Amino acid sequence: MDIKQLKFLLALDQTRHFGQAAALCHITQPTLSMRLRNLEDELNLVLVVRGQRFEGFTEAGERILAWARTLLAAHDGLQAEAAACRGQLVGSLRLGMVPLASFDPTQLLKPLAERYPELRFQLSSLSSEQIVDRLSRNQLDLGLCYIDQINTSYFEVIELASTGMGLLHDTRYFQFDEPELSWESVAATPLGLLSKGMHYRQAVDLSFRSRGLDPQPLLESESTFQLVQAVRAGICCAIMPVRSALDGLSEHMRVVPIRDATIHAPLGLVIRRTEPHSVLAEKCFAEARAIFGDKPLTPPHEK
To answer: What's this model's pTM, rounded to 2 decimal places?
Structure first.
């Protein structure tokens, strides 16, 4: 058994496709299949349900996957620890963040990249619940999410800011002269919104309902990029964070603040307190605290 075999197994879990997993690992599909069969032979277990295509993992395969994640995390931690002993910070920081928030992630990534040129970044757009779950399973190093439901006994948090909302529009198609918009005027505008169930959308819907408003969005999507595309095409306007830097994507894009529009749950940077600890994650978290000048939230039992 070697580290590469475990990486191949996790790549298959990530892609759920033999060909895509092979491409992700920069090997041929026959090589991937052979190495996974070698792993099965060594463990004397069937890990993968095979048909004409990938059909999932066996029960034993799911249990081995959990160990593979732990072993690879320990391997990466060893490499990061060795680099730290040499005064370096190398590896890939896995950062999950909610799709819409009044925080531009480049405020964190740029100073880290400048200070540690060998550091790499993997960004994932996820819900707060998914971020907490993946942090717990060591599939993320840090998370940028809403922290109203975070248990600070298990997670350390740097509180960043509350998220104010505004109306993103393209001035070639829509004009708003007011410095602030009311929810009534926003409701009368063709709207593109995130899909229902997402934290940001829930806050938007609550703001409308509390004022007796029930607008019917012209477009709904799980993708911020698709909403911005629709705004640039003049199809609709979109309710976006006021400090998201989206209005800087084009000279025609503007965000007008909406009156009394704030997501009450603050945004925060989150790291898992429990083992195994990633040296890379801890160092980046400490750098973030220095950048943003915040204090970690105290666990309830320590208050």
So the answer is: 0.62
